[in-house]
Amino acid sequence: MERSAEDWPGQLRDVLGCVRGVSRTDAACLAANFGTFEAMVGASSAELERCPGLGPKKAARLTAVFGQNFAD
Fold it and tell me: What CATH number does the domain containing 15 carry?
């Protein structure tokens, strides 16, 4: 079993890395550009695409994941 990261950037990489096509570099860029997970989740696809390496497909995947209801 893979060991989970204990710091926020590492945890963010672990979580975002579960989305198909999102790399560790993408996760680091998102963290640097948005600062908080809340800001990232609230961003539009167009805003996400402003991160280098995040094109329309990755941004759409992230937006879809962020819009899911995980409470069910």
Answer: 1.10.150.20
